[in-house]
């Protein structure tokens, strides 16, 4: 068997694995019977179906006559910086409030863009802080920590 | 005349000073955010959701609807002026719209887009008003088995209409259904798949899932390309279309409206599909077809009318059957539930003022957009000039605050990051995430109806084919599934998506 479509193979295998995990976990809840279903019944059925669908996708990726399609090389920098800066925002927001969280997230995420100096990012972050405090905290009155509390 | 009474009731709600103001604010901020390239209606709604909190349900929904249309219109502006579609539904607009702009007709293109959208919005509002009652009555007497069958049709439809391989769309729907089940089982109180995270007892937040899947991957892939979306703004002078242009826009506008109104109602349909279909239609029937692609009025007026009509009629299945037909409607449903309104056939009888108020406010919103947007075009343009590098940080922060504010939960921000990762992987594997979100929203309801049907029937699966309605619905689902499996039709379907 030769895999032609690497993307589909990856997707199919992932679905197969995820479906299997859901189905197996579901068996640890009470399955019950069709007339008196337990919490595990429906997820077990769906997990099994997902595993089957995944298997079909994976097997078909090896079918003959398909154009060869490889996984593309991804530059993880942008993704890690974007997702990482949101995580940083979440951590800081909880501990020391909105303003510093915004500055931190904007500074970190700015590293993902070309020609974006830290100075520019700091300025953009500060403008954004003012906007957010005015809109969310003052105008809308959302309850959220703004400054670090000592 | 019931229809007129209903509409009058609706206007008595939507034309109160406060609600008019909310519709206005919704349209303005929706357009402002929608203008930003790479921010679609979905991310816009999620970002702006917090501003609707603390309002009466009717006002909150009216504002959300305004945000939705505003975002839609904002997408057209950036498509025409800078050739950057804000979202899929305005991809087609870039073809002829931007060409028109380049030929010095940018103002006319914006006006045609606004007028076409307004016409389509008016017709679609009437269509909703006419269809809503009968549809709700039809669905009113559904038992759990019929509801289950109906949701099956909805999901199969979503699979059929989504672009890309069917097996992948099926897998995404099932994965979505499963993710929707995470949390506490309402019947027994058992915590499912959530033992590691107590925050998950109520399941994943739909807003966090939606923004993660649709908003973040877009930003990442913009940044990854290295060169940020460049914006060459076309200058424009006169805002008014010439007489010839006016004459030429009428027929495509009417056709586009008809196509959009129909496609918007279909499960899985919506603005994007409608605009592609309308463009394809104009290419076949219009006298000016050879000019299309070089800035023909037809290639702009048709799709712009179609996507607005569809954006509106896709409310029909949500409001009358309680079933969202596409990803944006799935998020709308989440937003309605946040405002403690469960979309179902019951709304129309239980909350007539809210229901008709929302419907009429759609028309009011369209009117506001047409009146407001043309004079304010200078402001939108100013917004368009802000370089992307300053914008994406703001988008990230706004998304995070929007997601957090739903239930003041920092955990939800991590959920968004997780689904951002999922969405990014799906993007890299060329897999459409829309069916996943639909499954996610429908998962708990489907399980509930499935269990109740079998409880009533004592475990007899025959209950799903026990009434004429559910037989017909399931037959529709089966036929839809079979149709796309037929190679010939598959070819047409692929061709339809080829335009992308």
TrEMBL record, chain B:
<feature type="transmembrane region" description="Helical">
    <location>
        <begin position="153"/>
        <end position="183"/>
    </location>
</feature>
<dbReference type="Pfam" id="PF01970">
    <property type="entry name" value="TctA"/>
</dbReference>
<dbReference type="InterPro" id="IPR002823">
    <property type="entry name" value="DUF112_TM"/>
</dbReference>
<feature type="transmembrane region" description="Helical">
    <location>
        <begin position="256"/>
        <end position="280"/>
    </location>
</feature>
<feature type="domain" description="DUF112">
    <location>
        <begin position="20"/>
        <end position="438"/>
    </location>
</feature>
<feature type="transmembrane region" description="Helical">
    <location>
        <begin position="461"/>
        <end position="486"/>
    </location>
</feature>
<feature type="transmembrane region" description="Helical">
    <location>
        <begin position="353"/>
        <end position="382"/>
    </location>
</feature>
<feature type="transmembrane region" description="Helical">
    <location>
        <begin position="203"/>
        <end position="223"/>
    </location>
</feature>
<keyword id="KW-0812">Transmembrane</keyword>
<feature type="transmembrane region" description="Helical">
    <location>
        <begin position="315"/>
        <end position="341"/>
    </location>
</feature>
<keyword id="KW-1133">Transmembrane helix</keyword>
<feature type="transmembrane region" description="Helical">
    <location>
        <begin position="106"/>
        <end position="132"/>
    </location>
</feature>
<protein>
    <submittedName>
        <fullName>Tripartite tricarboxylate transporter permease</fullName>
    </submittedName>
</protein>
<keyword id="KW-0472">Membrane</keyword>
<feature type="transmembrane region" description="Helical">
    <location>
        <begin position="388"/>
        <end position="406"/>
    </location>
</feature>
